[in-house]
Amino acid sequence: MTTKINYSDHKYYTNRELSWMDFNDRVLEEARDKANPLLERLKFLSITQSNLDEFFSVRVASLKKLAAVNYPKPDASGMTAQEQLLAVNDAAHKMLNKQYTTLNRSLIPALAQQNIHLYRTDELSTSQLQFIKRYFHDTLYPVLTPTADDSSRPFPFIANDTLNLAVLLNQDKKRYYATLQIPANLPRLVRLPGGENDFILVEDIIKPFLDQLFVKYEVKESATFRVIRDLDLDVAEEDTSDLLKEVQQQLKLRERGNVIRLEVESTVSKKLLKRLTKELDLKEYAIYEINGPVDLTVLSKLAGQVTDHRDLLYPSFTAYQPASLTSSHNIFDAIRRHDRFLQHPYDKFDPVIEFIRQSAIDPGVLAIKMTLYRVSGDSPIIRYLGQAAQNGKQVTVLVEVKARFDEQNNVHWAKQLEKMGCHVIYGLIGLKTHCKLALVIRREQGVIRRYMHMGTGNYNDVTARFYTDMGLFTVNADMGIDATNIFNMLSGYSEPPYFHQLHISPHGIRDFINERLNQATELAKTGKKVRVRMKMNSLSDQSMIAHLYKASHAGVKISLIIRGICCLKTGIPEISDNITVHSIVGRFLEHSRIFIFNLDGQETIYLSSADLMTRNLNRRVELLFPINDPKIKKRVLTIYKTMWNDNVKTRVLQADGHFKRVDRRGHVALDSQAYFADLASVHAKADKAQEALAKPSEFQPMFSPENQPNPLNYDDGSDTH
């Protein structure tokens, strides 16, 4: 008799927050990897800090609130909120030690070998000391405002992510406390005279001259510190008739959220630290003593200000742009001939912008409908949408004003679009609109055609340069009808009974993927050849993981490329021994979502805006769309196989829950991101005049992974096993 498997058993799941910490550790590994260019290693270390800041301000803040009310329900892994809070802080303390060990023992000495220096005051030459003295008096002193901390002047409010000095003073044997906020509108990194790349931090310029801010007091000590606050936006949508105003109000309140984390220089005395922790009301686990500069995001600024060291950065590459998708061609003619596919950043984002630009000025275009989740600070797409409205086009834009940490930017753009004559929708109650969809309605010789762009990433021309994403242009009639229905659903009360080819969350994407996994499971039970491949940012939905386990148990071979959170465990006998998980962390942030199902020789390929997380599947409007063009299907499959065979930036999930680098001894090195960048450069340089090479669907790789010796001892991605 077969024992029934309890797929909800806690032992089958990894805690989401600890899995995220493990992901950030993979980013930290890139900072420690001497094979990476030195200045890029600095940037990776900076990224680990910005990642942590966002993680604490949202995820850890949420855990703290749950723990405060003794929320009893455990997560999928069986951990309570209090247990998670303590475990995450413990992991973060270990990560902090690793971060600063990397900086102090590896990166600072390596920079010095390149004559790049981040000096402390006691390391400065006489002329440099004179320079910082002048800089303090001429630039800093006029704008600094010391704040006393006593019975008549209570401890000041410390804003989130601001740099501050805690100061201990003495006068007539009495102890006094003060704080000093370092102005954020002045450069933190100051270039020194002397060497070409000599720098000092602004707080290290201020400290020697504190006595001039506290006249007649003795400065006993000072320590740099900053706090991270709870920034989770709590918009009570069901109680507000004006979502825009509610978001703006919550943005003001968010700045005063509870302190989640304190970072302070490790040289701080017990007295001064006790004063800070008491005033900020912090538990011991939330105090992080720093052996180096507070807030490592400054390292990215350092990397950007170093001069004459292009050799310490990644080699540049030339992104590819098909000639038929440039401003010198009619983009509608190109899309009408056949579907067009883009792989960013290796393919330029410019055709997406050009699509909106030509739509704005084309006399045949009647309407433009578009969803915007995150856009750049100076978005050309916003500009062209406004131009389209002014040219008499019917322009409807859904701007998701609840996009986390982009709320302020999106509120601004929503107002601007309205001023330019666009009809703006602010999202749906209870849902975030995360799908990436643009629909252009065009009249051509009496016929109405729907032109579409669908993507896995945001309509952000800046992040498109370093996020890997995919996009599709099409005039497929069924998809066009589906897209129209989606916008009717977003702007009105329409509830389409079904969709022809597109799949929409909430719930629709979950149902579709579950259906495909069920089909794969049943076919595998009968001995049919089945294969499932997926690529995403995160996998955390318990029900979806259970479906993957069931398919694996039935014999379905499952290959997953997951950049970040993965709550699924591999290597569990009879449960996940048919599942292999890779994670690629490298030069570009892997952001595309790909779903490939090969069911008894019938292969279908889909791209999506959604990760397999509960929020994406249940609480967001997401889009999953098919790739129908045979040549594009082949290209997407080749892209996936190339990534799967990456043995330079890939880590493989082990049975113990940790990711381990591939042992490539004796194998040809394959860095998939470097390969795609090199390939783009080759095509860009060769395609100055040849229209044939300008068609994405005719894009042919320099080599096809299946025709090369497999650089790994893993499955080569073929459909036989």
UniProtKB/TrEMBL annotation:
Q: What is this protein called?
A: Polyphosphate kinase
Which residues take part in binding Mg(2+)?
R374, R404
UniProt-annotated stretches for the region Disordered: 696-721
Where does the record place the Polyphosphate kinase middle domain? 128-302
Q: Does the keyword ATP-binding apply?
A: yes
Q: Which gene encodes it?
A: ppk
Q: Which cofactor does it need?
A: Mg(2+)
What Pfam families does its record include?
A: PP_kinase, PP_kinase_C, PP_kinase_C_1, PP_kinase_N
Purpose: Catalyzes the reversible transfer of the terminal phosphate of ATP to form a long-chain polyphosphate (polyP).
The active site of this protein is located at H434
> What organism does this protein naturally occur in?
Secundilactobacillus collinoides DSM 20515 = JCM 1123
Tell me the protein family, please.
Answer: Belongs to the polyphosphate kinase 1 (PPK1) family.
What domain of life? Bacteria
EC id: 2.7.4.1
What are the protein's UniProt keywords? ATP-binding, Kinase, Magnesium, Metal-binding, Nucleotide-binding, Phosphoprotein, Transferase
